[in-house]
Amino acid sequence: MARITNWNPEDSHYWEAEGKKHAKRNLWISVFALMLAFIVWQIWSVTAVRLNDVGFEFTASELFTLAALPGLVGATFRIFFTFMPGIVGGRNWTVISTGALLIPAIGIGIAVQNPETSFFTMALLAALCGIGGGNFSSSMANISPFFPKKEKGTANGINAGLGNIGVSIVQFVTPIIISVPWLGMLTGGAKKLPDGSEIFIQNAAFVWVIPIVIVTIISFFGMDNLPGTKQSFKEQSAMFKEKHTWVMSWLYTMCFGSFIGYAAAFPLLIKSEFPEAGAAGLAFLGPLVGAAFRPVGGWISDKVGSGAKVTLIDILLMIAATIGVIYFLNIHHFTGFLSMFILLFFATGIANGSTFRMIPYIFEGGKAKLAAPVLGFTAAIAAYGAFLIPKLFGWSINTTGSANLALYLFLGYYAISLVICWYYYGRKNAEVKC
Which run of H or E residues covers position 1? Predict the structure, then answer.
């Protein structure tokens, strides 16, 4: 396949004649690579729920830590991964970072079969899942330059939104795949549960090995390194001097940090707060809704012409949904709790799309080249939600016996975010209209 030697998506004739086909090919390969990255990143969010059932003896705090560690490491990796497409090329880095997902996938598949595996080893493997989390920033920094400004909101929403569905896929597939004997027998055998039934917990990781290999090969042959997009670390680091880099990091943490943090904690939270419901398997519904509506948030913002307006309305919805979660948690009503949490996931999805649409409009003109690294960096900061939210839930439950205290803290964060978004981007005389 011939490599791209010239790139100018803002030229409408070039875009329609040639640019669009290249951009869409790279986008769809990126979507599947990012989907696998999110799957590996969130393997522990569902695997941790079953570890004690197969002979491990971890405390509740240790299990929440295993679910949280991929978030901490993934967020930190994102800071560095943000710069990699600009340094080594988007295609090159997609191939490297997707192939690296094999390390935690194979390692976890081996480790979960031995209940004598130490917590330290499990924590190390959970941390390595952070490679998947880091891939988001590099993926967004890579895909954004492929599209003209008028289509960036939709394109970024598709890449991120469909990639985010990996969270829901792993939470839906894992309870099913660990019951498949033929795969389990090929990879180590069964583990008996207290009720006498058998599961193949290693399947939760091993099932993704072949898809990772396939997508890595497709990325190598099907993606492109865009000309004119390479930047040194020094050039990209100019974004740290920009006030709006930090403002948008706060706002994106509000929505994506919530999405990925709730996704990581949701299975354990359901099991902890409503053990009688036996409904941890329904946890996939929240991330599914949040991921599915992320492209809609970008699309609506493109149509309305303002990501800030969409974000402001959506923060109000997040506040209302969080109040609803607290209410139904207090009266111990599972259906209401689940419904309000799904509404909260929906709201995070819309805001994920609308906030990412704002960034190319904030960084334009002479600062346009900063938009891609800013997208990656804000995603890096927001990803710490995948660590902080499960840890806060675990702390709240251990300290007070309930998740309420953590939810009140999140509610305060959303209220502050509403004021910040209105002041900088939403009011009549706002500094930037985006």
Answer: none
